[in-house]
Design goal:
CATH topology of the domain at 62-150: Collagenase (Catalytic Domain)
Number of helices: 5
Structural class: alpha/beta
Distance between the termini: 68 Å
Order of helices and strands: HEEHEHEEEEHEEH
CATH architecture of the domain at 62-150: 3-Layer(aba) Sandwich
Low-confidence stretches: 1-21, 31-35, 48-58
Bound molecules: zinc ion
Number of strands: 9
Shape: globular
CATH superfamily of the domain at 62-150: Collagenase (Catalytic Domain)
Helix content: 25-40%
Strand order of the largest sheet: 1-2-6-7-5-3-4
Strand content: 5-15%
Radius of gyration: 19 Å
Length: 241
């Protein structure tokens, strides 16, 4: 065994040990401990909603208009791509609502940042933002984050998810357990959608590379790129279209 091999082995062992020490959630312990859950930046009202209280009023965007602007420092090269994705998304939603870019009186700002994230729902008393750095400017992430802003959580947090999914809690990174809370206050108007743009793939939040989210029959869930008919129905139902 060469020195290099030994060092690699020791490094690998340490990594494995670290990983295994950071694996696992107890279902009971899953609750919102702070205001950031995965790519969702939540206001205190959102947290109340997630914990099963009645949805706060005003979480719908008024007049079916999501009014946004780009932060002055946001790079021009990304803006047209985002505008295009949103135009397509409007059509996919059957023109139920509009994403309106405005200069003033806006409530959501597109900003650069370390990862893709967004606030959940409208809240006029809270500065809303969508964080879209370069790697997030693609059709999936732009629509996914704007869907959060429209008021939606991840598909795997639906209150009925345990009828459809098997969550392998032992493979979930201990620091990411709050991604698996159940949205007890969320109203459902569609059947479970494995293909939803709001559904995470099987290996999401894994501490060890093993699957965390599987279909009840053991089937894997891929990384979904497209808005489905059920996604569109969900948004249209929520906005009364
Ligand atoms: Zn998300």
């Amino acid at each position: 065994m060469t020195l290099k091999t030994i060092i690699s082995f020791i490094t690998l062992s340490v990594v494995i040990e670290l990983c295994s020490a950071q694996c696992g959630c107890t279902q009971k312990g899953i609750k919102i401990s702070n205001f950031n859950v995965g790519d969702m930046v939540l206001s205190s009202q959102d947290v109340l909603r997630i914990n099963g209280f009645k949805a706060a009023q005003g979480v719908h965007w008024p007049n079916k208009l999501l009014r946004y602007t780009f932060d002055p420092s946001y790079p021009d090269k990304n803006k047209n791509a985002i505008r295009e994705f949103l135009k397509i998304y409007e059509k996919e939603l059957g023109n139920c609502l509009r994403f309106l870019e405005e200069k003033s009186d806006v409530y959501a700002t597109v900003v650069l940042g370390g990862g893709c994230s967004a606030n959940v729902g409208y809240n006029k008393n809270y500065p809303l933002s969508i964080t879209l750095p370069d790697p997030c400017v693609n059709r999936r992430n732009v629509k996914h984050e704007f869907t959060h802003l429209l008021g939606f959580m991840h598909e795997h947090t639906r209150p009925d998810r345990d009828q459809f999914l098997k969550i392998e809690f032992g493979n979930v990174h201990s620091g990411l357990c709050n991604n698996f809370y159940l949205c007890e206050g969320c109203k459902l108007t569609t059947t479970y959608d494995f293909d939803s743009i709001m559904q995470y793939p099987s290996e999401a939040f894994s501490c060890n590379g093993k699957d965390t989210i599987l279909k009840k029959n053991g089937g894997k869930i891929p990384f979904n790129m497209e808005v489905t008919k059920l996604d569109a129905k969900k948004v249209r139902d929520y906005y009364g279209c």
